[in-house]
Amino acid sequence: MNCPKCDSQLLTHTHSNVEFERCEGCNGLWFDLLEKEDLQAIEGSEFIDIGDENVGKKHDANRNIKCPKCEIAMMQMIDKNQFHIHYEYCSRCHGTFFDAGEFRDLKEFTVIERFTQMLATLRANIN
After folding, report:
1. Contact yes or no for 3/10 (Cβ under 8 A)
2. Quick one: CA dihedral 77, 68, 90, 109, positive or negative?
3. pLDDT tens digits for 30-82?
4. What is the helix (H) or strand (E) element at residue 123, kind and residue range?
5. How many helices (H) and strands (E) does the chain have?
6. β-sheet with 18-23: strand ranges across
7. Could you tell me if 25 and 39 are in contact, meaning their C-beta atoms sit under 8 angstroms apart?
């Protein structure tokens, strides 16, 4: 299976008995159905995201990507808790792709991010 962003090979890795794929080129992460949620719940799993976030931001601009499993166009998603995190989702196999640095950021939900989310929710409810 090849990376949907840079076309390098996705290699299978395991953390706490949960398999995931990491791109050997850009270090993006591919998660099959529920692997992201399983890994999010495991303390220390942010260390699977070894990629440079600057490289990830460069690849994040690449929007027209296809699922490495299904070959259909993936949808860009925004994390419901951290609006600055954009990842790709396959509506057929339910796989997700995170650019380098995004999963690590997802695991670090800071006080400032919580406050920003709260303000955005309040603004939306006022309008």
Report:
1. yes
2. negative
3. 999 999 999 999 999 999 999 988 788 787 777 789 999 999 999 999 998 88
4. helix 111-126
5. 4, 6
6. 10-15, 18-23, 29-31, 96-98, 86-89, 75-78
7. no
The distance of Cα 97 from the centroid of its chain, to the nearest Å, equals 5
User: What token pair was written down for 110?
Assistant: 């800071």
Name the one residue in this structure whose structure tokens are 């196999």.
93
What are 123's two structure tokens?
Answer: 């603004």
In the chain, the N- to C-terminal Cα span, in Å, equals 45
Cα(114)–Cα(108) distance, rounded to whole angstroms? Answer: 11
CA distances from 59 to 20, 82, 116, 127 (A): 19, 19, 25, 34
Between CA 77 and CA 85 the distance in angstroms is 8
